[in-house]
Amino acid sequence: MNFVVPDFAPAATELFMAGMSLVILLLTVFMRQSARNVGYMLTQVTLIGAALITIFMMDGQVRLTMSDMYVDDLLGDVLKVLILFSVITALIYGRAYAADRGFDTPEYHLLALFSTLGMMVMVSSSHFLSMYVGLEMLSLSLYAMVALDRDSARSTEAAMKYFILGALASGMLLYGMSMVYGATGNLSLAGIDQAIYNQAAVYDGVSSKTVLTFGLVFIVAGLAFKFGAAPFHMWVPDVYHGAPTSVTLLIGSAPKLAAFAMAIRLLVGGMLDLAEHWQTMLMLMAIASLVLGNIAAIAQTNLKRMLAYSGISHMGFVFLGLLTGVVDGDRFNALNAYTSSMFYAIAYVVMSLASFGMIILLSRSGFEAENIDDLKGLNKRSSWFAAMMMIVMFSMAGIPFFVGFFAKMSILQSLVAADMVWLAVFAVMMSLIGAFYYLRVVKVMYFDEPVDTAPIHSAPDVRVLLSVNCLAIAALGLLPQQMIDLCQLALVASFPG
Amino acid sequence: MTGMPLLSLAIWVPIVGGLLVLATGSDRNAPLARSMALITSIIGFLVTLPLYTGFDTTTSAMQFVELARWIPAFNIHYSLGVDGLSVLFVLLNSFITVIVVVAGWEVIKKGVAQYMAAFLIMSGLLNGIFSALDGLLFYVFFEASLIPLYLIIGVWGGANRVYAAFKFFLFTLAGSLLMLVALLYLFMQSGSFSILEWHDLSIGMSAQTLLFWAFLIAFAVKVPMWPVHTWLPDAHVQAPTGGSVVLAAIALKLGAYGFLRFTLPIVPDASQAMAPMMIVLSLIAVVYIGFVALVQTDMKKLVAYSSIAHMGFVTLGFFILNPLGIEGALVQMISHGFVSGAMFLCIGVLYDRMHSREIADYGGVVNTMPKFAAFFMLFAMANAGLPGTSGFVGEFMVALGAVQYNFWVAFVAATTLIVGAAYTLWMYKRVVFGAVTNDKVAKLEDINGREFAFLAVLAACTLIMGIYPLPVTEVMHATVNDLLQHVATSKL
Q1: Is A2 contained in some domain?
Q2: Is the pLDDT of residue B450 over 60?
Q3: Cβ separation of A405 and B140 shorter than 8 Å?
Q4: E strands of A47-161, at which residues?
Q5: What is the pLDDT of residues A383-393, one digit of tens each?
Q6: Which of B140, B150, B155 sits opposite A401 (nearest CB)?
Q7: Chain B residue with minimal CA distance to A420?
Q8: What pLDDT, in 10s, does the model give residues B125-183?
Q9: Residues of B with CB under 8 A from a CB of A
Q10: Is A437 on the interface with B (CB under 8 A)?
Q11: Mean pLDDT computed over B106-122
Q12: Among A225, A369, B119, B414, which is disulfide-ready with A232 (CB 3.0 to 4.6 Å)?
């Protein structure tokens, strides 16, 4: 038996992160409690280092390694850099919050690192096995993080719910994968793609196609759970609400990008010939997510829950982009559709970071600013941050000149291009409903008198970063071209043809 | 033609100035914020003047054109230009902004910088709407302009301001979102967002009909036409004076302008087919809303309903599809910009002193405020369409055009001259004439220099336009003829 040493270069970032995580793990064991900052600093250094490695090794080539289980391409690199930056941002925002509540232990930062590593493995996987390993690494770290605030009953309950439903979803995903394996005899995505193509061409295998589509249903269900799209959304509001805000920040941002990568690799990279099947499923889920997310969000008084439901509706929009790629077996719209979907996912992550960042900014020791009413009169307390939050809210509502508008517009034009005008009309009607609850937040900040007059305390780095974050929403709205180009380039380089 | 990007200046000078005003921060710096806002608005007005002096009235082509790539992925351009339909609105808007800044000078005491900045930014956005030649650029300005007005109504408005602000925002957004889908559809058909290219795009009748409805809903809400007008009285009543002025003078014109820029030239066949329906809706607005105005007890609400009736005249003028009608409607729009703005300012003057808009709380104002009463008289007459004021010119032209179209349409429309006179003058009589009814009125002080200034300027505009409207009509002549030719050419 030959043992070939794999080429480690394509996975350099992940190896670096894994190595550093182990170093930090060892170091922090021997550190005194008072030296908590060291763990935080080392984590940030690791993340920044990983981002730099990814950026410098980015060259647009597609490289497979480790028995074709692992792929390094531009799509992966772009998403990894974005994931790393959003985790860095989330950790900076959440630092004081975690410290005030006493869970800024080394575990907190290590779990964040491991979850990031999991996301990166997911993004780069080209094989069911590596994908599943990445996914579980992410999920298990997040379950633990939700429960970090041990004394809070709400957090514990949220963690339990997240864990049980997450395990169920993983089970479904695995079950689906095993069926697809049974039907195609392959675990690698490229192999599955080829096998499906051959079967369709040669004998249009009826029996194996049934198994295949059955497997597909389970895979899509598992994916939808990770996205948090209806009807697999039940965990989202409870987990967002129950988790400490700094953890919600993490759950609500970067993992959406990882889920997007997983969806693109599985559905587009592996099963594009089954598009008519998964597109129908995505359509139903998108409609359900838009209706449920937007309508349920209206009834919320808790800002975190509101953002959770709004996140569900945003995932509906991401799905709307994914489902317009193949029209009647024709792929002319594919690039346009997946670009718009990716652009939307990125825009959502930027907005999500800013919105949860604002909640953290207004919270302080012993006080969670998580109700919408806690924003009352923010304009009088800090007109700068009220304006920033207003940008975020209008962007989420899809009002120009903010990035949320262009993200929505690109999805809508993709729908119109795919001859689904009715779906576009439906989507805009739902975003009209959505506008109501975003407007309510603006109303509370600007039209109402402040109840809480305590000055806003926060570290200067948080203030600056949050402002940059919010201004980026406006800047990306004024000049969205670069981001769209980047998405397009990444998709073209990674999926030629 | 000068080499300056005048339209860009008209858009971005107020916006950048507004952001600078915003930077002055808290109310401690209010005097600074006020002066900066005034300077910015005056510069913003001055840069639009060359648009008129340099305007070539012999051509219907776009002038002062600017073109730059904005979002190549969707073929979206930063494309600006004005023709006879739009140039006057850019001027009107920049002019009204100066008036609004002056009118809010000492009246607004809290959040001065934010108030002034909101108006300046909105002024820039509105100029953007009137000069955009790219469908998506138009849409972006169109929706972005909702944000400042939402804040103006909600922050500085009356007791029921939250309801009014939400209603205003959601009504308009509902309409414009459908328009977005229509714009995207046109983009898919033509591969471009250029409005001028859309004018020459051939579209089938069923698609035209759907597009017509999508545009109709967007613009009808904005105009507003009966029966989607209900947001306007709320918004007007709750908005601060400046907000009402901009809303009446400029924002309502956006919908009407949209009909001319999008509906008529892009879907001419559907427009012709739907014209009877539009005329009926317009007549309902003119007559029914006129009677609704008659019974109002709140002055602002009365003027708001009168605005709807006047805008009914405008849409009537558009859809009788002859030169007199469209030119008359455009004149009416400009005139209404001055007159309704002035009416709201007059009510604002009274409100600042009495903190009431109820007609019943007044009576005999002429005894204590004679100068004010004279101005109010003039604007009330103009609102009623008295010959010699600008209000008459537009209504008369539209009525003449309507006679060419169908006598009975003209007959019904002309009743507005009676109803309009009735509700305006009856309100004027109850507020201004008679003996002093209560102590509060007895203590009223007449208008100060600042108030005299802005009312006098508006009075001059109203009279000049009423006596010598040629400078206004000659600008639009070539473009209107071209537009009508365009509408007459079938696209099927």
Answers
A1: no
A2: yes
A3: yes
A4: 63-65, 70-72
A5: 888 888 889 99
A6: B140
A7: B185
A8: 999 999 988 988 999 999 888 889 888 888 887 788 888 888 888 888 888 888 888 89
A9: 25-26, 70-74, 111, 114, 136, 139-141, 143-144, 146-147, 150-151, 154-155, 161-162, 165-166, 169-170, 173-174, 177-178, 180-181, 184-185, 187-188
A10: no
A11: 85
A12: A225
Residues of chain B contacting residue A425, judged by C-beta atoms under 8 Å apart: 178, 181
CA neighbours closer than 13 Å in the CB half-sphere of residue A346: 30
Predicted TM-score (pTM) of the model is 0.90
Measured at the alpha carbon of residue A234, what is the angle toward residues A230 and A240, in degrees to the nearest 5?
110
A400 falls within a domain: yes
Residues of chain A with pLDDT under 70: 1-2, 33-35, 200-208, 496-497
pLDDT at site A204? 54
DSSP B54: T
* Distance (Å, whole) CA B221 – CA B47: 31
More confident site: A366 or B116: B116
Question: Taking the CB of residue A465, how many other CB atoms lie within 10 A of it?
Answer: 18
Which of A400, A412, A413 is facing B140, going by the closest CB pair? A400
Provide the percentage of residues in chain B whose pLDDT is more than 70. 99
| Number of folded domains that form chain A | 1
Q: Is residue A1 in some structural domain?
A: no
CA of A63 vs chain B CAs: smallest distance (Å): 28
User: Nearest CA of chain B to the CA of A287: how many Å?
Assistant: 17
pLDDT above 80: residue B383: yes
C-alpha–C-alpha distance, residues A68 and A70, integer Å: 5
Amino acid in position A369:
A
Please report which helix (H) or strand (E) contains residue B80, including its range: strand B76-82
Note whether residue A4 is domain-resident.
no
**Domain residues for A445?**
9-494
Contact with chain B for residue A413, Cβ under 8 A: yes
Phi, psi of B160 (to 5 degrees): -100, 35
For A302, phi then psi, to 5°, come to: -95, 125
DSSP A219-242: HHHHHHHHHT-TTS-THHHHHHHH
Confidence (pLDDT) at B1:
44
